[in-house]
């Protein structure tokens, strides 16, 4: 009898203290999605297979996809996301990891007709140019997201692997 | 005072809860992939360990012994540990939600971490006074946190090495843990030199 009473009293005290604590400190909602979203490059390039950066952040939090699917973010974003999520970024849940082989958009300036259609397509404003003038790419800004390829009417933009030796550091 | 310092060294290093007594191996392998998460886990588990050993001592001497209920010790301790872990979880979800998400299932699993119940039970056997029980908990937490963080740092480093395919992940982690355990055997005898 004493056993039941003592343990019941113990459980009751513990339970009441927990209820009081939970009442005093309610958990905040979805802070992780916002934190991951803030780390993503916001290019909305959809190379991760999701419509944009925020949906990708939500998918990471749900556990649908690994943190290594963001080419524009590259290694730096992967490391930051690893710190936020506790994943190492080397084990992808679904897709094969997108290896950060940095690509760079290159405009064949002989063929460029200066139509300026590629300018609004670029999420990071890495293309310089004006209508009727030749365009070029700011190598330090380009994330290699391929979004400028489709709008070009003369197909003068190609992606080439970056060569660190010829590039000026950003 | 020397007694308390000895208890601290004995529990943190000589009888290290993970590497010598082999308690709490589940979080040791589960949450050691990343130093940040391991640090959070070390803090959370350390907090629970200290509370569990102190509260365990209080319950033993204030409730179980006077009412002659020592056969219900495990039940009572599990109850207190579960409540402590819940409290830690509530506080953590509020104060550091990122860590809360990173630890995931391992946070509520502290309840079933055998190190916590083990330390609460060992404290009863080893200490006569409340300060001793407290130091016992503190020493164990330091030992647990130290080993978990060092191991996580080593595993982060291992991630970047060219390890043969069949050794990657758990195998190399277990080999590393075994070598660390051998290293910690070197602390045996530290208490004797300290006592002189």
* Average pLDDT taken over every residue of chain B: 88
Shape of chain B: globular
According to DSSP, the number of beta strands of chain B is 0
Instruction: Specify the structural class of chain A.
Output: mainly alpha
Q: Could you tell me the radius of gyration of chain A in angstroms? A: 25 Å
Uncertain ranges of chain B: none
The main β sheet of chain A shows up as: 2 strands, antiparallel
What's the count of strands of chain A?
4
Q: Which percent bin holds the helix content of chain B?
A: over 70%
Order of helices and strands of chain A: HHHHEHEEE
Q: Please report which band the strand proportion of chain A falls in: under 5%, 5-15%, 15-25%, 25-35%, 35-45% or over 45%.
A: 5-15%
Task: Report, as a whole number of angstroms, the end-to-end distance of chain A.
Answer: 76 Å
Helix percent band of chain A: 25-40%
Instruction: Provide the structure class of chain B.
Output: mainly alpha
Which chains have the largest interface?
A-B, 28 and 30 residues
SSE pattern of chain B: HHHHHHHHH
How far is the first residue's CA from the last residue's CA of chain B? Answer: 15 Å
The global form of chain A is rod-shaped
SSE topology sketch:
The complex is a heterodimer of chains A (170) and B (196).
Chain A: H1 2-24, H2 31-39, H3 53-62, H4 74-85, E1 103-107, H5 118-121, E2 127-128, E3 136-137, E4 157-161
Antiparallel strand pairs in A: 1-4, 2-3
Helix pairs in contact in A: 2-3, 2-4
Chain B: H1 2-14, H2 25-30, H3 35-64, H4 73-95, H5 97-103, H6 114-126, H7 130-159, H8 170-185, H9 190-195
Helix pairs in contact in B: 1-7, 3-4, 3-6, 3-7, 4-5, 4-6, 6-7, 7-8
